[in-house]
Amino acid sequence: MKSKEELNEMRRRLYARGSQFGKSERHELTNNEIDVSRNWTTSNSTPATTEKDSFTIQSDIEVPPVKSKRKYRAVIFLGSLFLFAVVAIISSLYLYYGGNQISSDNIQVSVSGPNYIGGGELLAMQVTVSNQNSVPIESATLIVKYPPGTRSADADAKTLYEERIPIGQIAVGEVKKVPINVTVFGEENDNKQIETIVEYRVDGSNGMFYKDATPLALRISSSPLVLRVENIEKVSSGQLVDVTLTAVSNAPSALRDILISASYPNGFKLESSNPEPVFGDNVWQIDEILPEEKAVITLKGIVSGLTDETFRINFAAGPSDPDNRYIVAANLAEGRADFEIERPFIDVGVTIDDSVVSPVILTEGETTNVKVDIENTLDETVYDMTVEVVPGGNALSESSITSNSGFYDSNTGTVRWEVSNNPSFGTVLPGDTRSLSFLVKQSEVKTTSSFDLVVNVYARRVNETNAQETLIGTTRAEAKYTSTISIGSQVGRGLSGFSAVGPIPPRVGETTSYSLTLVAEAGANEVTNAVVEASLPVHVNWLDKYQGEGTLSYNPVSKLLVWQVGDIEIGKRKSINIQVDITPSVSQLSDLPILLNTQRIRAKDRFTGALLQDSAPAVTTELSTEMGFAEDNGRVTE
After folding, report:
1. Domain count, the chain
2. Cα R_g (the chain), whole angstroms
3. Residue 495 shares a structural domain with residue 623
4. Whole-angstrom Cα distance, residue 298 to residue 317?
5. Distance CA 314, CA 80 (A)
């Protein structure tokens, strides 16, 4: 191998200008096989040799290490990662912006129905389910959760708590409507809620998915049954008390199989009842109660307890449970009887027109009978008993109270019964009873007229002349005078805005028009929610012409007129005019045809809360002679 100096000299000559080269020597290739070793060793001083030939290479150039030729694998790996990231990003964006095939957000469930319903009335509602996904949903089921007091509307009338209604498949863009009819029971102003959920599956998945709707909120606008409870609140321990239950129907049709159940406290023991309970001592059944009809149940029991202790009997009324006929399925009305135990003393009871409820509602202008019963519940005899009645309220005057055995003292404004005019008051043994009565007459009809009576009983505990007379019994009673409501009607011709058509008197085959006037008037108290109902006979035609106060509705099928009068102030009236016509038939010849059947009005007394009612007779074609018409002007002629 040539030295370094020789190589440098060769390079110099090679790159020098004007260098001359001779003919190069050519070497012939050989076919001899050469065994090349797989292990090579390079060094500045150590040669690499083979078995057949030996070569010596000498150089001062540093040879770099041989790099791996597998770089393509890293490139493929990095490229795969990049593609995966791109695909993941694109898929996420596709799903996020609604490109997914199925989503609960694309399933809409809504419930439509009334928000107010009368207790026991039919509730007609509808559930709408729509599928806005790009694929159908399978095995859809509607789940309805009902509030307590819900029953099916079919003949079986089963109690409903939760109902599953199969819907099946819902195609893409399909809308399915499911009608639901149930009966909801409850007390007036009860708030109830009906929940709906759609359960469904997706093709290719075993998972179950749910979509719920906004619950339907209901309020019970009125109860078909009212339960009134009458009892004495202040009693002595061991005293026998009366409790009167009165169930009043407000339903438009008959109520059947109504149960009334009682929940007694520990201090109450039932002695008897009329009628007898149908189960145990606390369940009564009313087989049928017609509209506006009453059903009365009277209980007698003994209240026992400590002084100042209070007790309450709770009553519930409603339809019986189909699964257990002695359990109230849903409360239509509730009531309670409260008792307070007082220290035993003379028992004083006051009844006004045979009623112990306070306040008692009286009709204005009537004379009222008041009865006072006094019983010695002490274990000792009392002497020289005196009864004093102190009247109050704007309904009474000095002459309002009348009694044969009592003395009215105008100086003190009291009525007294003493031994001098009632000898039996001298000695009252334990358990003895004394009774007295008097009449109360309203002095004059006034606005919000009422009165109260305070009854005080005095006596001596010992039979001594100089013994002190003490108050041993007292009670109070109150009464309110309800207002009156009246309805009036008359017939006329050609009132303001109405035309007068046809002959008077009416003739067979010819049409004659009439004007009807209805007038509603309040008495001494303001009335609210006044409603007048009347119907037209079959031969009278409704012309849909009316004018006046309030609102009027007409049912062409039943021919029923309903005049919503509204509130009427004290002593005021409201009126409405209606135009109708008739074409008499031969069968009505010489008759007075009826234009408007009996009219009925009902309203509520704002002061007493009492229901007021009145009616007016039917209106015929006979016009008043004061209008210038002859007598019998309404009889049909030929």
Report:
1. 4
2. 51
3. yes
4. 15
5. 79
Quick one: CA dihedral 176, 181, 187, 189, positive or negative?
A: positive
Tokens of 240: 């026998």
Chain centroid, CA 122 distance in Å = 13
Nearest to 453 by CA among 525, 356, 340, 342: 356
Q: Which domain holds residue 140?
A: 104-220
**196/147 Cα distance (integer angstroms):** 12
What is each CA distance from 175 to 83, 151, 167, in whole angstroms?
42, 28, 11
> Residue 284: its pLDDT value, please?
92
Residue 19: per-residue pLDDT: 54
Write the CB contacts of 154 (distance below 8 Å, at least 6 apart in sequence): none
Same domain assignment for residues 611 and 558: yes
Does 289 share its domain with 354?
A: no
Contact 567, 550 (CB under 8 A): no
State pLDDT tens for residues 139-166. Answer: 889 999 988 878 788 766 677 888 899 9
150-152 vs 175-184, strand pairing mode: antiparallel
159, 194, 220 — which closes off a domain?
220
468 lies in the same domain as 531: no
**DSSP class of residue 422?**
-
pLDDT tens figures, 331-384: 778 889 998 877 656 778 889 988 887 789 888 888 899 999 988 877 778 888
In whole angstroms, give the CA distance from residue 162 to residue 150.
Answer: 10
- What residues pair up with 327 in beta bridges, in sequence order? none
Task: Specify the 3-state DSSP secondary structure of 98.
Answer: helix
Q: Count the Cβ atoms, other than its own, within 10 Å of residue 383.
A: 18
Tokens of 200: 């469904």
Rounded Cα distance, 128 and 211, in Å: 12
Beta strands of 461-617 (E only): which ranges? Answer: 470-482, 485-492, 512-522, 527-535, 540-548, 551-555, 560-568, 573-582, 594-596, 599-605, 611-616
